[in-house]
Structure prediction request, 449 residues.
Amino acid sequence: MQQRPSARASVLETVVLGVTALIPTLAQGAILRRPRVVRLAARFDTNRSAHRTLARLRRRHGAGPVSVAVPGRRVLLLLSPEDARHMFTATPATLTPTAREKARGLRHFEPDGVLVSAGEVRAERRAFNEAVLDWGAPAHRLFPALTPRIRAEAQALLDLHRGSGRPLDWDDFSAAFWRIIRRVVLGDAARDDHRITDLLAALRADADWLSLRRPKERTREAFLAGVRAYVDRAEPDSLAALVAGTPCTEGAEPAGQIPYWLFAYDAAAIATYCALALLASHPEHAERVHTEIDGAEPDRPATADALPLLRACVLESLRLWPTSPAVLRETTAETTWHNGTTTPAGTGVVFYSSFFHRDARHLPYADQFEPDAWLDGRNQDNWALAPFGRGPAQCPAQDLVLCTAATFLAALLRDHRALLLLPRRPLVPPAPLPRTIDHTALRFALTPK
Ligand code: HEM
Prediction:
């Protein structure tokens, strides 16, 4: 059979894509958000313009993938759930998650992470991540021990909020969440170790420039040495202790997996904070969440079956405002797509989450808050939805993240109601939810129930 290449975007389409989708996404910082640019992007709802551009491409070229020239190579933009399914379910041997753009960015702070690894070591590192993160288990084994720590940090945040008389803002929320992240990943001794996360932030800021900035080797070495010290310390009830105690193969680079975990957990803070905003704007769902929290035994640790509605609210927050703007792959063999077109090896493949997650063609409630769709099976077989990726490279920490977020929200809301003070343009139905959000601008009052 004769091979047919995928449709190509014209020069004009490529320029429009660059201006409406690529530049705004990169400018906001895919690895470390730049607050001023995020504010601007939200003001102009840039994801809405990006969405229009992709929808126009689909009208013109059909639902098959479209090939776009980017500096240095061609990438393939997926436009249909069928192709998304193909991308997610392919094995790393034919469509590797280690796309070169990702590797160029992430090597600034995680030179040995699974996401920048290829071939056999990738498989070893993936297996090690799955073992420590309890991928596939009903709940992470550390959760009984972590629950009281998460609740204590929520209480400290509530005390601060009450004591200061100020609204709850992103700076305080994120500081509290970072204390949790450091305790979960590195151990209680790291609770106030701002130095290690400041070093990481400096490296992440450079990572957003890909190869345009050289990795700061001294900063990276200081950061990685700090991480290794926590693994040596192996404080009980931390992921660092599990890293130290989990048998692994030679290429697994156990401590080298931790930088990515610290970075990725930060996204959970954003998703949790936006979920709080959704609840504050949807009183009928907030009522149900309060009933769920009241029904949960306060001393029982969060498990996979605990707080299902709250977990669904966090998933919904990630659907509406995905913290990973795109999931990337790279073909390592010739690949055939659902419309019969083929792509050679070495092509970048893009699943643009903010487009797929809001695609009314495949999701009747695209622009509404619909947490129940995660509980009643409506979202289950929908390949347009991948807040944590899917298939063999799916995020192995999904349950750890959802448990952390739901436990934290439950602790904040057990005795309080959240009132959204800002933004002034409310997130209230029937108006469609904005496609771009500036989480740093959200402000809340937490009033006693
Ligand atoms: C809100 C928080 C998070 C979100 C939305 C998220 C989402 C994702 C996504 C979309 C991927 C790519 C999947 C793919 O390529 O198909 C991924 C991969 C990954 N995530 Fe997460 N993640 C989060 C937090 C975390 C945390 C806290 C950890 C570790 C403690 C983690 C560990 C990983 C690892 C190791 C991979 C690479 C998997 C591989 O390439 O095989 N993630 N995550």
The radius of gyration is 21 Å. Residues 203 and 216 are 7 Å apart (CA to CA).
